[in-house]
Amino acid sequence: MLACVDVHYQEHEARGALLLFADWAATASVEQRLVHLPAAAEYQPGHFYERELPVLLALLAQVDQPLAAVLIDGYVWLGSAAEKGLGAHLYEALGRRVPVVGVAKTAFKGSGFAVPVLRGGATRPLYVTAVGMEPDVAAERVRTMHGSYRVPTLLKEVDRLSRG
Predict the structure, then answer these.
(1) pLDDT digit string, tens, across residues 112-155
(2) Cα–Cα distance measured from residue 46 to residue 98, given in angstroms and rounded to the nearest whole number
(3) How many CB atoms within 10 Å of residue 7?
(4) Phi–psi pair at 58, nearest 5 degrees
(5) Where are the domains of the chain?
(6) Cα-Cα-Cα-Cα dihedral sign, residues 112, 113, 114, 117
(7) Which pLDDT score is estimated for 45?
(8) What is the C-alpha separation between 139 and 30, in angstroms, rounded?
(9) Which domain of life is it from (predicted)?
(10) Which of 3, 27, 28, 134 is the most interior residue, by most CB within 10 Å?
């Protein structure tokens, strides 16, 4: 089983969504999970994970089956695999047992290590990073996910679900 997760912030709460799906080419999820937590700490550059990680862990605590990987909206690493991003912190919090794949929609200065993935007719790539799985393998799996647009269907769906 695979999972994709996303978090959306409202004024006084964080709303997290999780989709479980059977394989990388799945067209739909087999289960959905939601959590609502009190508003997290304010965003601080370089500490985004402190805001998002509690929501992701609350979602993943609801999953009672082994996961082959977790996909997040964002980066695993923030700089040449030396500075931990949300994905690396999640990987550690999960006991380094579940690979984490980061799928980001934008590049940032110093993110040249991310594997660019073009999907559909898009001219702008997604940027894939990973831990617990080779980045090139993760990028190829993201490339082959269902959907004819830049962002895979299930990643769009988990974003929509997290927004309510």
Answers:
(1) 899 999 998 899 999 999 999 999 999 999 999 999 999 999 99
(2) 23
(3) 26
(4) -65, -40
(5) 2-163
(6) positive
(7) 62
(8) 23
(9) Bacteria
(10) 3
Among 156, 159, 158, 136, residue whose Cα is nearest residue 147: 156
The residue with greater pLDDT, 146 or 12, is 146
- Strand ranges in 54-144 using DSSP code E only, listed in sequence order: 69-73, 77-79, 83-84, 100-104, 115-117, 126-131
Q: What percent of the chain has pLDDT over 90?
A: 78
For CA atoms 36, 31, 59, 42, the dihedral sign is negative
Averaged pLDDT score across all residues of the chain? 92
Assigned fold of 2-163: archaeoglobus fulgidus dsm 4304 fold (3.30.2170)
Q: 59 CB contacts (<8 Å, ≥6 apart)?
A: 5, 16, 17, 18, 33, 34, 35
Helices 48-60/86-93 angle, 10° precision: 40
pLDDT band (50, 70, 90) for residue 40: low
Instruction: Indicate the SS3 state at residue 75.
Output: coil
28 DSSP 8-state letter: S
Question: What average pLDDT score do residues 83-102 get?
Answer: 95
CB 61 within 8 A of CB 35: no
Scanning the structure block, which residue is given the tokens 């709460």? Answer: 13
